[in-house]
Amino acid sequence: MERLTASSGYKNPQPTVKPDLVGKLSRCGHSFHIYCLVAMYNNGNKDGSLQCPTCKTIYGVKTGTQPPGKMEYHLIPHSLPGHPDCKTIRIIYSIPPGVQVSPTSAVGCHCLGFRCLQVDVSFSPLKVL
């Protein structure tokens, strides 16, 4: 990765901020011009999250673009194959029939969805839920 020796090429959104000001991401430690970080956020989903383009570390909570629906989860007292000492979380997604609308990438497509997923509890279930 090149060192940040030149000013950012992005236009100055705020005259009080210098174009050579650099910010460092707290978890991964990668550095970017402040203007570049603002441009990354403005060109993304604007969902309150930012993803480092170098290592893909996610800051904030990233949300997807699935159609409206319902998610249920249950703790099951049985283990999955290969995880004999773990309980299981069953996640069920139910998406009613309809036509997809913005912000999905499949606007206008018909959708109908039902998915069931089982994850062992050792898989950091809070990240899944």
Automatic annotation (TrEMBL):
Compartment(s) of residence: Cytoplasm
Gene Ontology cellular component annotations, sorted alphabetically: cytoplasm
GO molecular function terms attached to this record: ubiquitin protein ligase activity; zinc ion binding
Annotated EC: 2.3.2.27
Xref: PROSITE patterns: ZF_RING_2 (PS50089)
Domain RING-type intervals: 28-56
Transmembrane domains' residue ranges: none
Name under which the protein is recorded: E3 ubiquitin-protein ligase
Native source organism of the sequence: Rousettus aegyptiacus
Taxonomic path: Eukaryota, Metazoa, Chordata, Craniata, Vertebrata
